[in-house]
Amino acid sequence: MRKFVMMALLTLATANVALAADASCDAKAAEKKLAGAAKTSFLKKCEKDSKAAAPQAMCEGKAADKKLAGAAKNSFVKKCVKDAASAAK
């Protein structure tokens, strides 16, 4: 049950970040006045980078809640991101 709840929360967080990333990436592309293939390439990379950052940010927040620092924080975040990636599959 706990895994199911965690997966549901992760899915919702990822979906919200993805929607925000789409709007943010579009705005950045417009700001750079990109068009055609350059815009498509930029959007693809921007969205990929945004999706990769979502679990990292969530895990950083959890580490801060637990008041972890140094090697303990790094280890926790690394494991958390790995677990989030395997849960998303």
Please tell me the total number of domains: 1
Number of strands: 0
Unreliable residue stretches: none
The secondary structure category is: mainly alpha
Biggest sheet character: none
| Tally of DSSP helical segments | 3
Shape: elongated
User: In percent terms, what proportion of residues is strand?
Assistant: under 5%
Head-to-tail CA distance between termini:
18 Å
Which oligomerization state do the chains in this entry correspond to? single chain
Whole-number mean pLDDT: 81
Helix fraction bin: over 70%
The Rg value, from CA coordinates, equals: 16 Å
Order of helices and strands: HHH
Organism: Aquitalea magnusonii
Protein name: PsiF repeat-containing protein
Keywords: Signal
